[in-house]
Design goal:
The complex is a heterodimer. By secondary structure, chain A is α+β, with helices and mostly antiparallel strands. In chain A, 17% of the residues lie in helices and 14% in strands. The C terminus of chain B is likely disordered. Among the domains of chain B are: 112 residues, Ubiquitin-like (UB roll), CATH 3.10.20.740; 199 residues, Rossmann fold (3-Layer(aba) Sandwich); 127 residues, Dimethylsulfoxide Reductase, domain 2, CATH 3.40.228.10. The chains are: A alpha+beta, B alpha/beta. At the A-B interface, helix 2, strand 2 and strand 3 of A face loops of B.
Chain lengths: 172, 705
């Protein structure tokens, strides 16, 4: 019946509206409320540490080489057992990422031979000037649980001689 | 001309002179046979086995002695085993297969073996990115190893082999390139193998350890990161650096170098300075190939002693003395101050320049001195050095070509310390058969290569050289290196010997100057300064550029009655600079372009590597500013334009332009391209081989002593 049809359609529409009033809302009340990010989310970088607090980053600058946006700048220096930042001979004395340049592609993660740089779950980055967008090493480094885990550490001679952890199969 | 031999490599015909090794023959047609131990500048040893190739030779019929022909083609017999391309000389009709399955399999297996004792710590290795082992692994190796991982060789990683060179025992692949370099090229066998098998180590046998001024070169030719320099340690990754061609400014050899630069944030602590703060800085100096000058080597001074240009106490702004104190002013004020003071005193102007300045700077200074009717003096030269402008070595001279028939006389000079690369090349010439005669009051490291060694008292070298006269007269070629021995008598005695040989290549005088461009200064008409104290006391205006006569004690200022107006143009606040009335900050040679004339009279161009510091200006430009203030026309817009004026004004430099100085030709060995494993990490020369000064033969013939 052509006369009743619009009314039925209208009723259907109103019913959908009525039904959704009793559903759980999908809107997240950001920033009071946050959704967890997906496991492979690529947020702001974190420089990881080993359990003993030593930095995983060895200052090899392969992340800088892989970076398509030229956002990473690394300068390296030499470790000693008195002042050890990372295992092996070399550590990053300067490590800077320009967050305005970064395109969060994750190539740095792929290039890293020690899995030191990881794109984390933080996505709230804001700056009031361009200089603030350059994150230095102390902002990127993972926090430590206890102050004795901070770098540089005084370590036993001959213990940390390898920069890159031994890997039987590089695909591990 | 050597007999030519035709052969085929990977199906491509090539014709090379008899005795050429397969690896070099392949290189001439662009086929890269992988090598580790072979180096084109050293005797082959065939110890790494990386270059194994299949070699076939034409079958010879024993009855007739003629090649066997099968189906219209000569029959080729391949040996049952592979041969090393680096030790096998070519022969007529040879067929070489470097890419056959058999050859490729062996190349792959050798790499697999090498990698069992190599740590794969490329991320922290200074060689990573320009490493022959890395390149060859990427190109030829198998992605998987069949060896037991737990049996991988581990050794000590941070062994100081000397104070400049670090050894990583684990990375060493025992190719012996460094040992052979020290033995064959440098002539200082201070490195050796110790133990055997997997325990083989490189050790140094000298005291102090690794006692050689050429030690840095071993890091260039090391095909892995086993030898690295302490100076550059973890300085930067090779791909991050830019290359700028330059000329070493520390001695008269004029070695071609490449400065690698990078923008830095702060890690300059190692150079003794504090922060770079985002400036572009020099990270290292590498040799640049010039077979006529330094081949592919540089000495450790050239490699490590450029740091002074980055010292924190460089002058950045012009200073003018007010009430006894130097105060910072603008360029305009400083130049006006000079103008005011000099305009009244034009007659007694003295320009005192150092041989560290470029040809362009010196030419402008000379123009200024001439314009003011003053004197242009060269500070700290060799007594009698001006004779080299008449009897200096001629165009076409190359120590690398000298051998039997050439006599080389080294008088009163310790080349090892004064001009190390000349030491190295003269030593090699002597080994090729050149007659080396040394006249010196002290023992030098070159003595053991001398055919005749003449000891004399200090100051008596001239007498001994005269006595040698008859002995060297019949030599086919005669080159004389002379140093300082008190008076100009030595230079005169040496000039007497080469006088009749003017204009012939590989003949003439070479002054072992204290500075890089003393030769250029003399060619441009500077007079060696004599009795500076008297000159200083007489002059009303002294313009001192790049020299520190007061600090050196050549001028004493205590009892001077009338102090002249002193203009100093310098990099640092030297003793002389402290007494200046006007102090002008100059640019270092790494910050500007220009050219030097080497002791072998080769004009070579250097390019800016880093941006200029502060308000500094190039020396030639500063001189032009002063000249303009005084109403004298001097070119100061660019170094190239100054060279054009110079070439037009000075006959010896005729026709030299910046374009010509930048020309290159193909050089052998071919180095610095993608295959770093062949020649090492020296840079290929694409920025100019330089031009030898044209001789004025006529002038030399007419000239008398």
């Amino acid at each position: 019946m052509p006369v009743l049809e619009p009314i039925i359609e209208l009723g259907r529409g109103l019913f959908t509206t009525l039904r959704s009033m009793f559903e759980k809302p999908v809107t997240v009340q950001y920033p009071e409320e946050r959704k967890p990010v997906k496991p492979r989310f690529r947020g702001r970088h974190v420089l990881k540490r080993y359990e003993n607090g030593l930095e995983k980053c060895i200052g090899c600058a392969l992340c800088a080489a892989a970076c398509p946006a030229d956002a990473i700048f690394v300068e390296s220096s030499e470790n000693s057992d008195e002042k050890r930042f990372s295992p092996g001979e070399r550590y990053a004395s300067t490590y800077e990422i320009n967050m305005l340049r970064c395109i969060y592609c994750g190539f740095c993660e792929d290039a890293c031979p020690t899995e030191a740089i990881v794109l984390g779950d933080q996505y709230e980055l804001s700056f009031t000037d361009r200089k603030q967008a350059i994150y230095p090493k102390d902002m990127l480094l993972e926090a430590v649980a206890a102050s004795q885990l901070l770098t540089p550490q005084k370590t036993e001679p001959g213990k940390f001689t390898r920069s890159v952890p031994e890997m039987k199969d590089p695909q591990d | 001309m050597a007999k030519m031999v035709s052969l085929t490599i990977d199906g491509r015909p090539v014709s090379v002179s008899e005795g050429t090794l397969i690896v070099n023959a392949a290189k001439t047609i662009g086929i890269d046979v992988p090598v580790f131990c072979y180096h084109p500048k050293m005797e082959p040893v065939g110890m790494c086995r990386q270059c194994l190739v299949e070699v076939g030779r034409p079958a010879i019929d024993r009855a007739t002695g003629q090649p066997v022909i099968e189906n219209g083609q000569p029959k080729i017999n391949f040996g049952p085993k592979l041969e090393t391309a680096c030790t096998t000389p070519v022969s007529e009709g040879m067929v070489v297969l470097s890419q056959s399955d058999k050859a490729r399999a062996s190349q792959k297996e050798i790499l697999e073996f090498l990698l069992t004792s190599h740590p794969l710590d490329c991320p922290v290795c200074d060689k990573g990115g320009e490493c022959p082992l890395q390149n060859l692994t990427m190109e030829h190796a198998s992605p998987q190893s069949r060896f037991l991982f737990d049996e991988k060789h581990h050794a000590e990683k941070r062994v100081p082999l000397g104070d400049k060179i670090w050894l990583d025992r684990e990375r060493c692949i025992q190719c012996a390139r460094c040992i052979r370099f020290q033995e064959q090229v440098a002539g200082e066998p201070v490195l050796a193998f110790y133990q055997r098998g997997r325990s083989t180590d490189i050790i140094t046998s000298s005291e102090p350890p690794f006692d050689s001024i050429f030690s840095g070169n071993t890091t260039d030719i090391c095909p892995v990161g086993a030898l690295t320099t302490a100076d550059f340690r973890f300085g930067a990754r090779p791909w991050e650096m830019k290359a700028a061609a330059s000329i070493c400014s520390l001695c008269p050899v004029g070695c071609n170098v490449t400065f690698n630069t990078r923008r830095e944030a702060k890690s300059r602590a190692r150079t003794g300075t504090t922060t770079a703060g985002g400036k572009v800085v020099i990270k290292r100096a590498m040799p640049r190939q010039n077979e006529q000058v330094n081949e592919i080597w540089i000495c450790d001074r050239g490699r490590f002693e450029w740091h002074y240009v980055e010292r924190e106490d460089r002058l950045e702004k012009p200073l003018v003395k007010k009430n006894g104190k130097l105060e910072k002013v603008s360029w305009k004020v400083a130049i006006e101050e000079i103008g005011n003071k000099v305009k009244g005193n034009k007659e007694e102007v003295v320009v005192l320049a150092s041989g560290r300045l470029s040809n362009e700077d010196l030419f402008n200074l000379k123009q200024l001195a001439d314009g003011l009717g003053g004197e242009a003096l060269l500070y700290d030269s060799l007594p009698g050095g001006e004779l080299t402008t008449k009897y200096g070595v001629s165009a076409g001279t190359n120590i690398g070509d000298m051998g039997a028939g050439t006599t080389i006389l080294v008088a009163a000079s310790d080349l090892y310390h004064e001009a190390p690369i000349w030491h190295l090349r003269v030593k090699q010439a002597a080994e090729r058969g050149a007659t080396l005669i040394i006249v010196n009051s002290e023992a030098t490291r070159l003595d053991k290569y001398a055919k005749h060694l003449v000891r004399c008292e200090k100051g008596e070298a001239a007498k001994k050289v005269r006595e040698l006269g008859a002995a060297v007269k019949d030599a086919k070629n005669l080159v004389i290196f002379f140093g300082a021995d008190g008076s100009s008598a030595l230079a005169e005695a040496c000039a007497e010997l080469v006088k009749s040989r003017a204009g012939k290549p590989n003949n003439g005088l070479v002054g072992v100057w204290p500075r890089a461009n003393d030769q250029g200064a003399l060619e441009l008409g500077f007079k060696p300064a004599q009795d500076l104290q008297a000159v200083f006391e007489k002059a009303s205006v002294v313009y001192i550029v790049g020299a520190d006569p007061i600090g050196d004690g050549a001028i004493k200022t205590q009892n001077v009655k009338r102090k002249p107006f002193i203009i100093v143009q310098e990099l640092f606040l030297t003793e002389t600079a402290k007494l200046a009335d006007v102090l002008l900050p100059a640019q270092a040679f790494t910050e500007r372009d220009g050219s030097y004339t080497s002791g072998e009279r080769r004009v070579q161009r250097f390019y800016p590597a880093v941006p200029a510091l502060g308000e500094t200006k190039a020396d030639y430009a500063i001189t032009a500013l002063i000249a303009a203030e005084l109403g004298i026309e001097v070119e100061g817009r660019s170094a190239g334009l100054v060279m054009d004026k110079l070439a037009a004004a000075v006959p010896a430099f005729a026709d030299i332009t910046y374009g010509k100085l930048a020309e290159t030709t193909e050089q052998w060995p071919i180095i610095g391209r993608a295959d770093l494993y062949y020649g090492g990490t020296s840079y290929q020369n694409s920025q100019g081989l330089g031009v030898p000064l044209g001789r004025e033969n006529k002038k030399a013939e007419e000239g008398s002593l």
